[in-house]
């Protein structure tokens, strides 16, 4: 029988790649998303996925009926949103995620993949962090991921196997593009302004991964024997994905002809730094290959943006920066003080209308 997978957050940056990938692989996919970023599309919409349009905080047991697995991506997905209002991040990323896992377990769901983040590790330059390293979350977003992992891990039993995939910063083309993650931002800036802008000295390290590799890795873990993944956390990537921001910038300069490096002295620059050890993933899934390099990813973005003539207005459009878009929805009254839609169903969003050719 076809396996039914509930994918939460399937209309976000990662979900718009991952849900269609699972559909194509023959899964019976149902998406669940409140559609904060409806209309925030760059290029054509992702493939249609049957959708439960709902806030994660308002789940009912019936939403899990018939599901064999859950891939849980829905979240307020970065530090700046967490800093805007810590309570929303706590409610959605932690409390509602744990409730989702409880409902899933009660409904007989056997596999639960949680999209976590390497941001939960300490950020000392000297450290190379493994899954066993102490967690040292510095922000509301990072804390929400740590607390969710811990509470969901406590639910694991003979019938319910959660797995935690700790991602680095993700780059690459997606129908619901983000320009607020590092490589996408650097390429967007280079092509629309000729400048590769670094805030600070560019020395911090980041693990970075291509969105298609991330999606394939989720599928691989979903299909892995239960004994390999039961209640395990994995740094989702491979050796060679750790880069200093300066190195990312240099790679972007090579990919975007004529672009120049510009270093801005920014006392507030993001100085988080961490190198991630991916040995556990390689040891557990020796047959899996991550196929993208930063060089190829920067080139892919450059070619796509050049083909469609990405303009500076597109690059800076709030539709592609998560915090700016949520702020806009709040300021225009479309979202209320609990970050829920003011009207049901939410008003239709205009399609971004750019880059149809992508
Ligand atoms: N993009 C990255 O670099 C990155 C890195 C590490 C971890 N992650 C994690 O991966 C997951 C996916 O990230 P992304 O980049 O696709 O994020 P995204 O912001 O593009 O998408 C998140 C999706 O979740 C939905 N959502 C948010 N709150 C919801 C709620 N209350 N109810 C229902 N739906 C809700 C949004 O509408 C959106 O479609 C997140 O859990 C994120 O924390 C992402």
Secondary structure elements and pairings:
Layout: E1 4-8, H1 15-24, E2 28-33, E3 51-53, E4 69-72, H2 79-84, H3 86-106, E5 111-117, E6 128-129, H4 140-153, E7 161-167, E8 169-171, H5 182-193, E9 195-199, E10 205-210, H6 211-223, H7 226-229, E11 232-236, E12 242-244, H8 245-255, E13 260-264, E14 275-276, H9 279-284, H10 294-308, H11 312-316, H12 322-331
Q: Looking at CATH, which topology of the domain at 4-171 and 210-242 and 276-292 and 322-331 would you report? A: Rossmann fold
As residue ranges, the low-confidence spans are: 351-358
Number of E-state strands: 14
* Class inferred from helices and paired strands: alpha/beta
Written account of the structure:
The protein is an alpha/beta fold and 358 residues long. It has a domain of 228 residues: 3-Layer(aba) Sandwich (Rossmann fold), CATH 3.40.50. Helices cover 35% and strands 18% of the residues. The strands form 4 sheets. A 7-stranded parallel sheet has the order 3-2-1-4-5-7-11, with helices on both faces. Strands 8-10-12 form a 3-stranded mixed sheet. The protein has a two-stranded parallel sheet with strand order 6-14. Helix 3 runs parallel beside helix 4. It is globular and about 55 Å long. The site of nicotinamide-adenine-dinucleotide has 29 residues, from strand 5 and strand 8.
């Amino acid at each position: 029988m076809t396996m039914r997978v509930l994918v939460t957050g399937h209309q976000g940056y990662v979900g718009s790649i991952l849900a269609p990938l699972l559909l194509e692989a023959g899964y019976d996919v149902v998406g669940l998303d409140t559609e904060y970023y409806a209309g925030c599309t760059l290029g054509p919409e992702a493939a249609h996925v049957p959708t439960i349009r709902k806030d994660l905080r308002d789940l009912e047991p019936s939403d899990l009926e018939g599901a064999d697995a859950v891939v849980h991506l829905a979240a307020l997905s970065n530090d700046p949103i967490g800093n805007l209002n810590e309570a929303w991040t706590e409610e959605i990323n932690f409390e509602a995620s744990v409730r989702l896992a409880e409902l899933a377990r009660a409904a007989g769901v056997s596999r639960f993949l949680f999209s976590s983040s390497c941001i939960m590790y300490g950020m000392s330059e000297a450290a190379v962090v493994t899954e066993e390293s102490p967690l040292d979350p510095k922000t509301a977003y990072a804390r929400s991921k740590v607390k969710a992992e811990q509470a969901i891990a406590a639910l694991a039993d003979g019938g319910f196997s959660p797995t935690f995939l700790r991602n680095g910063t993700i780059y690459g083309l997606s129908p619901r593009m983000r320009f607020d993650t590092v490589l996408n931002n650097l390429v967007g800036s280079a092509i629309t302004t000729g400048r590769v802008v670094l805030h600070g000295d560019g020395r911090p390290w980041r693990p970075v991964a291509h969105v298609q590799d991330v999606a394939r890795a989720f599928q691989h873990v979903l299909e892995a024997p239960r004994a390999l993944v039961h209640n395990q956390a994995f740094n989702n990537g491979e050796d060679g994905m750790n880069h200093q921001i300066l190195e990312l910038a240099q790679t972007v300069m090579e990919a975007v002809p004529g672009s120049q490096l510009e270093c801005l002295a920014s006392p507030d620059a993001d100085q988080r730094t961490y190198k991630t050890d991916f040995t556990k993933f390689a040891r557990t899934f020796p047959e899996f290959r991550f196929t993208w390099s930063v060089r190829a990813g920067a080139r892919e973005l450059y070619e796509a943006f050049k083909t469609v003539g990405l303009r500076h207005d597109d690059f800076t459009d709030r539709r592609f920066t998560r915090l700016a878009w949520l702020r806009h929805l709040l300021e225009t009254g479309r979202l209320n003080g609990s970050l829920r839609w003011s009207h049901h169903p939410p008003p239709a969003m205009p399609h971004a209308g750019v880059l149809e050719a992508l």
